[in-house]
Structure formats: structure tokens, C-alpha cells
Write a structure and sequence with these properties.
Order of helices and strands: HHHHHHHHH
Strand content: under 5%
Radius of gyration: 19 Å
Number of helices: 9
Number of domains: 1
Number of strands: 0
Distance between the termini: 14 Å
Shape: elongated
Helix content: over 70%
Length: about 200
Amino acid sequence: MLRSRNKNESKSLPSPNSRVSFQLPGILLIVGLILIGVVARFLPYPPNFSPIGAIALFAGATLGSRLRAALIPLTAMFLSDLWLGMHTLMPVVYGCFLFNVWLGSRIQSRLRPLPIAGMSIAGAAFFFIVTNGACWFMSYPVTWTGMVSCYTLAIPFFQNTLTGDLFFSGVLFGSLALAQWRFPALRPVGLANAHASVER
């Protein structure tokens, strides 16, 4: 009897790649946290210490649709770039944030500290490799020496990117988890149904 119940419970739990959806209160909370993150981009920070990478990861992990999740950080980035200044690497940078959205979509049903931190580190590393590869190609001699020089000079910026992504991911995901703990109605529908099934 106990073995049968455990089997049913395991079927009720979401798989690591399953998508979860939020009801209106949860969606409003998520959008509100994202808007706060967008506003935070205008605050004075060290270079590359920015909330946009974390916003992209957070949107991908919580908004269900990858298209909807992608539009939010790209729109936020474009509007802030209109204010802060355009640059030639914008397409490359935006592509990196789309990758963060995809990373976030891989942990939709596993919003726990370790997967979030892992995806934040992966996103920061991808951003460092891709954007500095483009910078090397456009602004440095396309030689081994030029590449080494480009990536070496960019290490302090990578430290800021990594720190910023981890910090703002902690703020966004932590705020969501705290609110869900206090108000169960904010939990995603898929996980709420799974917990209800297990309790039965």
C-alpha cells in the first residue's frame, strides 16, 4: 500500500524540465520584481555589475513562455540603452541575455539555490566568453596575443558580471521565494497541484 502511494506521488511531482504557470497574483509579483530590477540598472554600480542578466534568468524561469520571457529583458535593455548610450556590441550583448532566458527556462520547476547559482555562473561565463570574443575581433589584432590581451584585460569586468548576476539573482529569486512562503497563493499552479496531490 505504501509502495503504491509513493508511485502515485512520484507521478504527481513535476519533472525537472516541466513548465509551471502562475496565477494573476504571482504574475503581478514577478512583473513587479522585474520592474524593480530594471529601475535598479540606473543606479550607480561598478562596470558590468548589472541586474539585466539576473532579470533575463528570472524571467525565463518564471514567465513560462520563452518569447514573453525574452521580450522583457530585451525591452528593458533597449530602453535603458536609449538613456545610457548605444554601442556596437548591442546585438551580441542582447544575444547573451537571450541565452540567460533559455537557461532560466531549464530550471522552471527547480527554483532552488544550487540550480539558480549554477545557471547564474553559466550565464556570466557565457557573457564573458562571447562578448569579449566579439570585442577581440572588432577592436584587437586578430592574433593569439591580441586575444590573450583582450580576455586578460576583461577579467575585472567578469568579476563584476559574476558578482552582479549572483547578487541580483539572489534578490529576485529570494524575494519570490519569501513571498511564496508567506502567501501560498503566489506559488506556481503546477507545483501547487503537485503538493496537493502528495498531501492527499
